[in-house]
Fold this sequence. Notes:
Elements: H1 3-6, H2 12-17, E1 21-30, E2 50-54, E3 63-67, E4 77-80, E5 87-93, E6 101-109, E7 120-123, H3 129-134, E8 147-148, E9 155-164, E10 166-173, E11 185-191, E12 197-204, E13 210-217, E14 221-225, E15 235-238, E16 241-244
Antiparallel strand pairs: 1-13, 2-3, 2-5, 4-10, 5-9, 6-8, 6-10, 7-9, 11-12, 11-14, 15-16
Amino acid sequence: xxxxxxxxxxxRKHFWSALIDTTHLVEVTLYxxxxxxxxxxxxxxxxxxxxxxxxxxxxxxxxxxxxxVDTPKVNYNILKVNPKKxxxxxxxxxxxxxxxxxxxxxxxxxxxxxxxxxxxxxADHPLSELHRKNLDLMDDNDWVSFYMSEVVGEQLIFDLxxxxxLDHILFMPRNDDNFIHLGDSYELFYHAGAQGWISxxxxxAEDTELHYDNVPEGALLWLHNYTRGEEERAxxxxxxxxxxx
Length: 245
């Protein structure tokens, strides 16, 4: 791919005069391949979400299992929980001024490798036919599709069918799937002027971040995903963070 295809707005004079020290290699940690758009920048408005367990559908005596106290840094999140006991009902509560925006949601019990399939999913208000259907988007393995509530402050109630003691929850808010996607194949390049793009090696994503320790300091970089997606943009590192052009 030509440099100007992925970074058409980059100043050419600045680019060719950039100082790249190929004798000084640095370590970088990468989380994305494309800049964050404003509609997904806060990752589904999830700061303030509460997750509770209870014995009864009315949640008369709930236990707080997890509270999201800050905006997640990535889309793929494993929430470790340590409930006091087994619960049949799990409640996901959005903050009063925010919608539910969930791309994927799966609950795992102790010593069980497969996610629990809820017997039923309801809300604290009647759901329209469309929104009942869209509940399936939280378990379709598509990281871009998402369920969005009709109202702010919605509470989703998951009936597990019988009591389970949860161990962890896969929690993926609304996102653009331009974060590091587990299992995908990536290759990082740096631009070497007349030599074009030089590979710094391929990586299979085993986590939500990629690590490279052979990056020339000050280099213009490009992360290519061989597995999926078309949105990619050149970037450079500043104070340990990716700055996209």
